[in-house]
Automatic annotation (TrEMBL):
GO cellular component: plasma membrane
Cellular compartments annotated: Cell membrane
Record's keyword terms, sorted: Antibiotic resistance, Cell membrane, Membrane, Transmembrane, Transmembrane helix, Transport
Keyword Transport tagged: yes
Pfam families per record: MFS_1 (PF07690)
Record flagged with keyword Transmembrane helix: yes
Protein name (record): MFS transporter
An example molecular function term from Gene Ontology annotations: transmembrane transporter activity
Membrane topology: Multi-pass membrane protein
PROSITE patterns the UniProt entry points to: MFS
Taxonomic placement: Bacteria, Bacillati, Actinomycetota, Actinomycetes, Kitasatosporales
Membrane-spanning intervals of the chain: 27-45, 57-76, 82-104, 116-138, 144-166, 178-199, 205-224, 245-269, 275-296, 308-327, 339-363, 375-397, 417-440
Length: 446
């Protein structure tokens, strides 16, 4: 539910713009208002979850997210919708930041933990992939308001289940490690980073460089403080773990590739092949189906047999291959021959790579740092997705505009812009494969 809401608005954006009168740049804030607090607060909330108790943080986050979803669903003005989306992002961060830490504690035995992570990864991947379909289906059948209101029954059921099923958990206490000045520094730095990334294509260069420089400065001051603080928010020794640091770096590249494919792939279907909103969502359905079946049915057993390292490398090979095939999609292409085969390759590769990568990352963290490591892993996921989306959409738009200014027709120019984005995404996927193969070899016995 929380991952789905990051992209469910994609297909509904034109309807929201017509109904509420958003300008082009203003419409981007329907997405940005969610991503900025979500990405910026994950690290802080992951640490706070270790201190106050992960169950408390998780249930509080579900409550905040559900209430915010209702506010977004009944919004009749731009300001209310953007404020509700920001509150959604905050609740999403509260719930998401502690999940992996909870899983590691609930399932300490390696085989059970691998299965739990596979289920978690399958649910998350399905949420991301289903967002496009549900956004189109609900908008076309009912209205855009229902892409948010649908969260009310799901959120209530999830909250009741969490309260009843999860065992009470005592945190270490707020007095044992809450570096609030450090928290302010890193939260501000992360929010600025996501802000710079998600809006880079809509601003002048100077307006992008200033907040980027400020974010970098905040990161530097934060790092210096963590090296000297008696009770640091982020223990820098975490990055001594080759598995944890390497897995997070690989994730930035892998998620950047997959987010770019999902967004630009939807645009290719609509603007080049002429698909409707519902048809575009339906065209993506094979991805969550394949991901769910593979992750739940084969992932844990495959990792147990071959090791997380080998499964990760195989998955990244499939992702790179799928992107390479997609980069050939022409203006006169068809879904069956130019989109579906690479879609299935990408889904299969992601189903293999994501649980393996998650297991490698969390195996590099100590029990007392599980919440913090979970928040860090989720943070790099948001940053990677935002970065990939910003880079690839900017490249596609620039290429298309250049061709149109040179006299090219709209359809071929649009298709060639998307082809360039897919080629760059292929290079990013190859970078993830190379980095993972070299840096994560120490986890091959996994």
């Amino acid at each position: 539910m929380t991952i789905l809401d990051g992209n469910i608005v994609t297909v509904a954006m034109p309807a929201i713009q017509r109904d509420l009168g958003f300008s082009g740049p203003g419409l981007a804030w329907v997405v940005n208002a969610y991503l900025i607090p979500f990405g910026g607060l994950l690290l802080l909330i992951g640490r706070l979850g270790d201190l106050v108790g992960r169950k408390r943080m998780f249930t509080a986050g579900l409550a905040v997210f559900t209430v915010a979803s209702v506010l977004a669903g009944v919004a009749t003005g731009q300001d209310v919708l953007i404020a509700a989306r920001a509150l959604q992002g905050t609740g999403s961060a509260m719930a998401s930041a502690v999940v992996l830490g909870m899983l590691v504690s609930l399932f300490p035995e390696p085989r059970e933990q691998a299965r739990a992570i596979a289920v978690f990864s399958a649910v998350g991947a399905a949420g991301g992939a289903l967002g496009t379909f549900l956004g189109g289906a609900l908008t076309q059948a009912l209205s855009w308001h229902w892409i948010f209101l649908i969260n009310l029954p799901i959120g209530v059921v999830a909250w009741l289940a969490a309260v009843r099923v999860l065992a009470p958990e005592r945190g270490a206490g707020l007095g044992k490690g809450a570096d609030y000045p450090g928290a302010a520094l890193v939260t501000g730095a992360l929010m600025l980073t996501v802000y710079v990334i998600v809006g880079a294509g809509d601003r002048e260069l100077a307006a992008t460089l200033l907040p980027a420089a400020l974010a970098l400065g905040l990161f530097v001051v934060f790092t210096l403080r963590q090296a000297r603080a008696a009770r640091p928010l982020l223990r820098l020794r975490l990055f001594r773990s080759r598995l944890l640091a390497g897995a997070n770096a690989v994730q930035v590249l892998m998620i950047g590739t997959m987010y770019g494919f999902q967004f630009i792939g939807a645009l290719y279907l609509q603007r080049v092949l002429g698909f409707s909103e519902l048809a575009t969502g339906t065209a993506f359905l094979p991805a969550p189906v394949a991901i769910g079946l593979l992750m739940l049915g084969l992932s844990a057993r495959t990792i147990e047999r071959f090791g997380a390292y080998r499964v990760l490398v195989a998955g990244l090979v499939l992702i790179a291959g799928g992107m390479a095939l997609l980069s050939r999609a022409p203006a006169e292409g068809s879904y069956a021959t130019d989109v579906l085969p690479p879609l299935l390759l990408l889904a299969t590769g992601f189903a293999a790579a994501m649980p393996a990568l998650t297991g490698l990352a969390m195996s590099g963290a100590r029990e007392e740092d599980a919440g913090l490591a979970s928040g860090l892993f989720n943070t790099t996921q948001v940053v990677g997705g935002s970065l990939g989306l910003a880079v690839l959409t900017t490249l596609a738009a620039s290429r298309t505009d250049g061709l149109l200014n040179g006299g090219a027709e709209l359809l071929p120019a649009t298709a060639e812009g998307y082809q360039l984005a897919f080629r760059v995404a292929t290079g990013i996927a190859v970078g993830a494969l190379t980095l993972g193969a070299v840096v994560l070899r120490s986890g091959r016995r996994g």
